[in-house]
Predict the structure of Electron transfer flavoprotein subunit beta.
Amino acid sequence: MKILVAVKRVIDYAVKIRVKPDKTGVEMNNVKMSMNPFCEIALEEALRIKEAGKASEVVVVSMGGPQCVETLRTGLAMGADSAIHVSTDTPLYPLAVAKLLCAVASREQPQILLLGKQAIDDDANQTGQMVAGLLQWPQATFASKVALGDKSDVTVEREVDGGLETLRLQLPAVITTDLRLNEPRYATLPNIMKAKKKKISSITPEELKVDIQPDFMILEVVEPAKRKGGVMVSSVDELVDKLKNEAHVI
Ligand code: AMP
């Protein structure tokens, strides 16, 4: 059984984001980039399924500019068997990524397509749902536990308001991963060396016959409003008065 994992290259979660002066987006030059944390969790889960003997191959796929190859190398160093780079310099939005993933999945024929529940740069939380729709595969989003059944189904636990929901899906299926599913491994030095010999194939959206033009445009990106300074109050009565008559929250 093959598992395909979509891994996105994003600005590292520890970097303080700066908006470009022309407000067209955020500064990407000379900024540390990493694999999206939810994608690391997706890859870790795929590797654990393989190590449990329930899958034979883990393939990572990333879409975007040439630097995505670095992210794919990280995936290979974590333990993926091979990688696919869908190479384009056109900015990609979730629908375009979903269409590309649909095309890659149709070629690769995985039994499970694993994605992060969301990318921490666009916070879209759309790609998994859209690719499941395009492929017409069942989907389980925000997975907190994944258990393979016999060869044809998978059971997924999801954290929902006030409890856990358990779903059983027929394979092939799309699963998106939540934070508590697992703790991703670090790549060890020997595995980083081994990853250099693993295969990364490259393909373009044109070769996949996918139109990636967005159907919307970003008008403006601005920083959040600066927090106003606090005020010291001398008594509870004064606090209540301010909350009532100034902030109007009680
Ligand atoms: P989003 O819908 O943008 O929040 O992204 C959700 C998930 O879709 C990510 O965690 C990735 O698994 C996948 N994804 C989004 N963009 C890309 C990309 N450019 N390359 C590979 N996977 C992606």
